[in-house]
Amino acid sequence: MKASAIIIGIVILILGAAGIYFLVTPFSEYREPPRTNTTNATRGGIVPAANPRLPSSDVFDVLYGPGPLNKLDLHVGQTYGTTFIVSVHGGGFSGGKKEQLMPHSQWFAELGFPAANINYPLVPTTMYPEQPQELLEAMKFLEENYGAERFIMFSFSAGATLSMLTTLAQNNNAGFGAVADYSDAPIVAIIATGGVYNHSLIEGGA
């Protein structure tokens, strides 16, 4: 019994160290991933659909709304695609910033996916559901101004929870109980880690 407890403890330490490395190292060092010599941003013979509305280079601090945190960065790399990655930072809903996911977005862009890092209003200056609503507004902006035709959410921690709520709101076609002009471009996938996806667990449910 004692040996089993020791083994379980070692496994937990290894998994914890791996998680800390993934979440902390890329964000603190802000390294740009190695660029590869891709042709027309191809991978495995897949050529993204042409998107002439993309800028010729990355753009930063683009305003997608009237608020001070309604800003996004768009990484285009060597891609001309219409499937956009929407990167949503974590920070407990009250902190964090879009630059945390810059290395990942640069990497996605090199793989053929334009990637937008989104800032959104933070607690306590905002309340739910404004944060996922602002993400939907950012996606509408990307559709109207940069030719996005579909979205993949990429996020961690609080950003993962917001990505889930954003996707449910858009696909439910009813938003958060209010009439909203959301993007016609669908969210087709979510890549999320460390978020809360079952609120019944918080409330003590099974």
The tally of beta strands, per DSSP, is: 6
Low-confidence regions: 7-43
Helices and strands, in order, run as HEEEHEHEHEH
> The biggest beta sheet, please?
6 strands, mixed
Describe what is shown at a glance.
The chain has 206 residues and is of the alpha/beta class. Helix content is 35%, strand content 17%.
Report on the architecture of this protein.
The chain has 206 residues and is of the alpha/beta class. The protein contains five helices and six strands. The chain has a six-stranded mixed sheet, sandwiched between helices. Helix 4 links the parallel strand 5 (150-156) and strand 6. Helix 3 crosses helix 4 (158-172). The longest helix has 28 residues, at 2-29. The protein is globular. 36% of the residues are buried. Residues 7-43 have low confidence and may be disordered.
List keywords for this structure.
206 residues, 17% strand, alpha/beta, 6-stranded mixed sheet
